[in-house]
Amino acid sequence: MASCPCQSGQSFAACCGPILAGAPAPTALALMRSRYTAYAHGDVAHLARTLAPEHRAGFDAGDVRAGMGATRWLGLEILDTVDGGADDSTGIVEFVARFQAQGQSRALHERSRFRRDAADGGWVYVDGETDLQSVKKPGRNDPCPCGSGRKFKQCCGRA
Questions:
Q1: What's this model's pTM, rounded to 2 decimal places?
Q2: Beta bridge partners of 107
């Protein structure tokens, strides 16, 4: 069983797999994790489907797909959640997503807003406040930021 890219500690099949396949996310956090996994897997359709309807017109699948091809996702860290549970109608998830793009290690720090969509009751991503930062590349013997437990040189540092 492959670990889920969202680093929940569960297998992909037990975590984000069903949500990417179309099952509704039970919480805002589950939707956020599935959206991270969609970026890691190149699932543009899931990103479009889980975007709030008022933002779908501005979603450019081609641009997103091109960005995915140039990005290597390394790990996800959840910092905070506010509401977003099974009985809530809105929620906030704050996270840091680490990735490599154009030879640079970077981190996206976002505080994302989610809500239940009135049409089908599923969670959708509304928007977020972001902070994109360059981060120091790990040393060869540092733990890999992807969460594998291996040294960077034996994992994501093999490029």
A1: 0.83
A2: 98, 133
- Residue keyed to tokens 């030879």: 103
pLDDT in tens, 18-47: 999 999 999 999 999 999 999 999 999 999
Residues in the chain: 159
The 3-class secondary structure across 81-111, one letter per residue, is EEECCCCCCEEEEEEEEEEEECCEEEEEEEE
Q: Name the pLDDT band for 140 (thresholds 50, 70, 90).
A: low
User: What is the bridge-based pairing of β-strands 123-134 and 90-101?
Assistant: unpaired
CA distances from 130 to 70, 103, 110 (A): 20, 21, 4
Q: Is the separation of the CB atoms in 131 and 119 below 8 Å? A: no
Query: Exposure string (b/e) for 3-18, b if CB count within 10 Å is 16 or more?
Result: ebbbbbeeebeebbbe
